[in-house]
Amino acid sequence: MQLGTVIGHATATVKHKSFTGWRFAVVQMLGNSGQPEADPIVAIDPLGSGPGTTVVVSSDGRGARETIGDDHSPVRWYVVAIVDEVGK
User: Fold this and answer.
1) 50 lies in which domain range?
2) Taking the CB of the first residue and of the last residue of the chain, which one, N or C, has fewer CB atoms within 10 A?
3) Is residue 45 part of a domain?
4) How many angstroms separate the CA atoms of 3 and 36, rounded?
């Protein structure tokens, strides 16, 4: 699991059938210092986070597939929590 900031949302008109009805969040990963790190990722967002929200994302494919409800889904990243406050 890793912290990230939602920088937007993605829309896909052509997608795997398991993604129908799910919201995609574009998440900028954060390093230990809280600064942006690496390239943004796209994650399934079952929690409805908004731009600027700090979230916890997981790359556990099995957990993501359980969230989606499809054992054959190509999903990898998903939002597991919205952070109320980041400690300093």
Assistant:
1) 2-82
2) C
3) yes
4) 10
Instruction: Examine the pLDDT at 1 and tell me if it is beyond 70.
Output: yes
C-alpha to C-alpha distance for 77 and 70, rounded to whole angstroms:
14
Give the separation between CA 55 and CA 74, rounded to whole angstroms: 21
pTM over 0.85: yes
Distance CA 84, CA 88 (A): 13
Is 87 within a domain?
no
Diameter over CA atoms, the chain: 41
Kindly state the DSSP code that residue 80 receives in the 8-state scheme.
Answer: E
Task: Note whether residue 88 is domain-resident.
Answer: no
- Three-state helix/strand/coil letters over 1-64: CEEEEEEEEECCCCCCHHHCCCCEEEEEEECCCCCECCCCEEEECCCCCCCCCEEEEECCHHHH
Total domains in the chain come to 1
How far, in whole angstroms, is CA 62 from its chain's centroid? 14
